[in-house]
User: What shape does this take?
Amino acid sequence: MPGPLDGVRILDLTSNFMGPYASLLLADMGADVAKVESRQGDTTRGVGPCRNPGMSAIFLHLNRNKRSLALDLKSADGAAALRRMMTGADVLLYSLRPSSMARLGLSYAQAREANPRIVYCGTYGFGQNGPYADRPAYDDLIQAAVGMPVLQSRRNGPPDYVATAVADRVVGMAATSAVAMALYHRERTGRGQEVQVPMFETFAHFVMGDHLYGHTFVPAIGDWGYARMMNPDRRPYRTRDGYLGVNVYTDRHWQRFFALAGHPEMGEDPRFADIHGRTEHIGLLHDFLARTFTTRTTAAWTALLTEADIPVIEMHTPETLLEDPHMKEVGFFVDQRHPSEGRLRALGIPQRWSESGPELRYPAPRLGEHSAELLGEYGFTRHEIDDLLASGAVHPPAAHVPADDQ
Assistant: This one.
């Protein structure tokens, strides 16, 4: 079944994590994504274990449902080819600095002149009207810039990064949303537009909604940082034989939990009777919870809390998550056969659509695998494609070992 973005053509000039995650989500929704890569390919082609060079685990997860065009944008012929392709594209998504795009002759003014309907979306480090405009940005830098390591240190000691590319992926999702909204605007007005999705400001918006806290008010009426989230005891609870994720949150949850723990009188204590009091005394509650959960096994607590309708779930590792019965039933992990990489475990598409359900159409591409195919679809003749290959502006597909030979 075609996805909701079926028929939308996207030229994807992004690499690393943030931009490719945005184009992955768009591709999963049915968009036709042409992944434009340099001769060396996306940097993530080398990140993680692989069976063939350039086809790493990280790359495979970030780039399914896309086709690869290996194009040298630093050559006059390569840049000219992309400008020509822009006339037939709905979206241009890029993660280069805007100054670099201008040097390549790929600025918004030039894109708009070629195609007034194009949605031109930049995903880069910093907003262009500030002093950091031309700085490079990566996930670690942006986590540091918005104070995430300091927030972590309130719980764990020295400043520390979150153990996933959280800034890249959050900002990637924001870029996906921005592109979809710009396409909706074009459907109503017929006009394309430029969209800027800066990492620093977008991730600060994500983090500071929780942690501006007392500084929301002028003058401040308290410290920064959401106290419950930053408490050092906010972690999975150790049981007699494992760990549990538990969120005793509402007044009703707490009344029931105090009764289960044998201390119903705590529900009448003004420190714990409502959410304001509990937030002020969260340290005492975390200590109480930690001591209480060690008294029973994981299975016993799961049964008791589920019966009481208190949110609970057993803690997984990435490995044990593969065996989770719910994930198996909904088909989250999908067995996939890749032409060069053999049998793979792919991540399913989490959303469900009643009318336009997207699907896994094809696996992540080899570098330049679809160069000639894509150029042909964008109006280049066979002779023109051969000339681009001969000049080196377009690179042929990377060699690979077929899956059957592994």
